[in-house]
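User: Hey, my collaborator sent me this sequence without any context and asked if I could get a structure. I don't really work with proteins. Can you help?
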Amino acid sequence: MTTHQNLNSFVKIQQWLKYTFGLVPIAAGADKFVNILTDWTQYVSGGLADILPVSASTFMVVVGVIEIIAGLVVLSKTEIGSYVVAAWLTLIALSLIFSGHYIDVAVRDIVMAIAALCLGQLTQTLEQTKQQAT
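Assistant: No problem. I've predicted the 3D structure and written it out in structure-token form, which is a compact way to encode the shape of the chain:
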């Protein structure tokens, strides 16, 4: 494989990750308004629900808006957006771990956060490669 073919392979991988980490948060965020995928309020721990100034469902709508924005940032500013999504997923995982519930979901979110970090690094490397080529 030539260097050009390798670069094209990396660009394809970056694009797959970009659209995954862009569109999935948008879809999950939008679902916070309609609860088709799940009842999202079940992921709000009792301790958190007790200190929220709004209901759990209202809180999850706000979470949905944040997720939609994060997905849009990934699609438009991939490097920074991927780090935002990684941080967001890490916070969700930590919240679930501290609640003692949905540890399986927390583990999945940590894995996805690592993949989002990889997207950020890959995007940065590809941008540097483009700049060096010009």
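In plain terms: Residues 103-133 form the longest helix (31 residues). You can pass these tokens on to your collaborator as they are.
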